[in-house]
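Annotated sample (chain length 108).
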Amino acid sequence: MDSNQHEIYEYARRRIKQKKGLYFHFIMFFLGSIFFFIANKWLNIGEPTNWYIWIVTIWFFIFILHFIKVFITDSFMNKNWEREQINRLMTMQEKKIEKLKNEIENKK
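Output written by the structure step:
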């Protein structure tokens, strides 16, 4: 693989990592919002509560997050998905490079 293809591959790999990070942050925000809504409505934040309620609630939040990661996220964002995405992004990037080369040659 020459340096140009290696750069295209690294760019595609970074984009895949960004997509996964964005999805993970979306899930974290969504579940965190639900968690704080439930904590505010039913656990009455600000009022004295028992510590075990908070421990069980936080454990349940972590359990739900893990469940979503294992059974939902990893089921469609697996290695095959990554390979397909990298191939698709590399093809798109190579087409853009060819288009730019053609535009430069046409201007000369």
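Annotation: Residues 3-41 form the longest helix (39 residues).
Annotation: The chain is about 85% helix and 0% strand.
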